[in-house]
Design goal:
Its EC number is 1.2.1.27. This protein has about 500 residues and is of the alpha/beta class. The protein has two domains: about 1-245 and about 450-475, 3-Layer(aba) Sandwich (Aldehyde Dehydrogenase, Chain A, domain 1), CATH 3.40.605.10; about 250-435, 3-Layer(aba) Sandwich (Aldehyde Dehydrogenase, Chain A, domain 2), CATH 3.40.309. The chain is about 40% helix and about 25% strand. It contains 16 helices and 23 strands. The chain has a seven-stranded mixed beta sheet with strand order 15-16-17-14-13-19-20, sandwiched between helices. A hairpin with a 4-residue loop joins strand 4 (about 20-25) and strand 5 (about 30-35). The longest helix has 20 residues, at about 40-60. The structure holds nicotinamide-adenine-dinucleotide. Nicotinamide-adenine-dinucleotide binds near residues 150, 175, 246 and 381.
Length: about 500
């Protein structure tokens, strides 16, 4: 069985002293071992990033940008290869894997504009003969820790901007589907990135802690579940680092009585069951306002019956398996437990049968869900859609705003005034109006509120340039020596 190793200073590295299994979720068969880094191996990667920093920082901006233009081209040319790696280790269908690559390419396109993005500001003559300008300098070595569900897009959210800003990186991808990140690191180098600028180490808490505790590491970007995001934020910030730690979600889709119910049902099914619900922006709660619940549920259930679930490599599959057997069983437990909590299981995906030993589960729809039930409170991260019935717009807003998660939300309506008011009232980081998965384009930034993000910067886009740089402000004067004098007063510009 092949071993997936670390990528440090442009080379494969890492012994197989501690390893973890990498499965093909469609067959349930282990296909690789992945090396788990020791503290010493992470330190080796940090040392490589540190050694590469002065050279990369000094590289001209136009030359830096060239890497991103070439990388974009290489990714387009080799997307089939990369999508195959994603599907074989994550399980998502190939078209979805390509969608993820295409969204990751947006981050590369954004980073390719670095000559513009890194421009500082200049004020001439703030006092007689005095000018002020600001520059954005890299923070240094950056740690990036990523989840299993987007093994290409989420690393690109982070590393594209971090590298564009002149930093060097140690990336610790999910140990469940680590192959794509090594492929990405090699592609970056093929595009001209010097060895040591992007290093990849695999592993578990040991590797993560070595990143969080290293005095060399200046900033940490994390995406994953809320409990881990919170602990990463606390540990890294108490170690004096900049941290952005994006957590889990429970995304609501509010359907108003005036909405087009066929479009809303199409959107709900796509956003709840796409990628088997393993998206942080998946819709997991349908909030049915007024009398829309019954006709909406009927439409959603009839669409669910037609969904094709199967191996991601089969072009006819619309939904693949879950990431692990344990996760599949956990998702199933929410569905089987829902009736005992007083909810109504309209479609029970745990009863679906599949050939073989893959980590498949059918799609579930649960009605009469209420706050307080586990099926409502927890992030399930599987193909389970709950319906909460409310009487009014105000009740819908109150429900969403009371939730501890606040990543994404959507409203479906044909009334512009309702949509505008919703945008104003709702306490969630990303809002869709008749758009169920409102992941912002790469030129904007991505981030939730409350328990969906710890830290004050959103990820990728303009906020990432702020996160990955330190600004320096320079005040300049070229005095005529004859005007020089001693003045112990605080310098005033008035
Ligand atoms: P996870 O939190 O289990 O793992 C994320 C990363 O943290 C992995 O690299 C993992 O190896 C590491 N990790 C796990 N346990 C750790 C520990 N105890 N100490 C230190 N590091 C640890 O998340 P996951 O299951 O890989 O991904 C799914 C989660 O990610 C979901 O909750 C989902 O909502 C969230 N997610 C959020 C966003 C977002 O933008 N907010 C995007 C994608 C995924």
């Amino acid at each position: 069985m092949s071993l997936i190793r670390h990528h440090i200073d442009g080379r494969e590295a890492g012994a197989a002293e501690r390893t973890g299994p990498v499965f093909d979720p469609a067959t349930g068969v282990q296909q690789h071992e992945v090396a788990f880094a020791s503290t010493a191996e992470v330190e080796q990667a940090i040392a490589a990033a540190s050694a590469a920093l002065p050279g990369w920082r000094a590289t001209g901006l136009v030359k830096r940008a060239d890497v991103f233009f070439r990388l974009r081209q290489l990714l387009v040319e080799r997307q089939d290869e990369l999508a195959a790696i994603i599907t074989s280790q994550h399980g998502k269908v190939l078209s979805d894997a390509k969608g993820e690559i295409s969204r990751g390419i947006e981050n590369i396109e954004f980073a390719a504009g670095l000559v513009h993005l890194l421009k500082g500001e200049h004020s001439e003559q703030v006092a007689r003969g005095v000018d002020v300008h600001s520059v954005k300098q890299p923070v240094g070595v950056v740690g990036c820790i990523t989840p299993f569900n987007f093994p290409v897009m989420v690393p690109l959210w982070m590393v594209s901007s971090a590298i564009a800003c002149g930093n060097t990186v140690v990336l610790k991808p999910s140990e469940k589907d680590p192959g794509a990140s090594v492929f990405l690191a090699r592609l970056f180098e093929e595009a001209g990135l010097p060895a040591g600028v992007l290093n990849v180490v695999h592993g578990d808490k040991v590797a993560v802690d070595a990143i969080l505790d290293s005095p060399v590491m200046k900033a940490v970007s994390f995406v994953g579940s809320t409990p881990i995001a919170k602990s990463i934020y606390e540990r890294a910030s108490s170690n004096g680092k900049r941290v952005q730690a994006l957590g889990g979600a429970k995304n609501h889709m509010v359907v108003m009585p005036d909405a087009d119910l066929d479009s809303a049902a199409d959107a709900a099914v796509s956003a709840a069951y796409g990628s088997a619900g393993e998206r942080c922006m998946a819709v997991s709660v349908l909030v049915a306002v007024g009398d829309v619940a019954d006709p909406l549920i009927e439409r959603v259930a009839s669409r669910m019956a037609a969904l094709k679930i199967g191996a991601g490599t089969d072009a006819s599959s619309e939904m693949g398996p879950l990431i692990t057997r344990e996760h599949r069983d956990k998702v199933a437990s929410y569905v089987t437990g829902a009736a005992a909590e007083g909810a109504t299981v309209v479609v029970d995906g745990t009863q679906a049968e599949f050939d073989g030993d893959g980590f498949f589960i059918g799609t579930s729809l649960i009605d009469h869900v209420r706050p307080g039930m586990k099926v409502y409170e927890d992030e399930i991260f599987g193909p389970v859609l709950s319906v909460v019935r409310v009487g009014t717009y105000e009740e819908a807003v109150e429900l969403v705003n009371a939730n501890r998660f606040a990543n994404g939300v959507a409203v479906f309506t044909r009334d512009g005034r309702t949509a505008r008011q919703f945008e104003f009232d709702i306490e969630v980081g990303m809002v869709g109006v008749n758009v169920p998965i409102p992941v912002p384009i790469g030129a904007f930034s991505f981030g939730g509120w409350k328990d969906s993000l710890f830290g004050d910067s959103h990820i990728y886009g303009p906020e990432s340039i702020h996160f990955y740089t330190r600004s320096k402000v320079v005040t300049t004067r070229w005095p005529n020596p004859s005007e020089s004098q001693i003045n112990l007063g605080f310098p005033s510009n008035h």
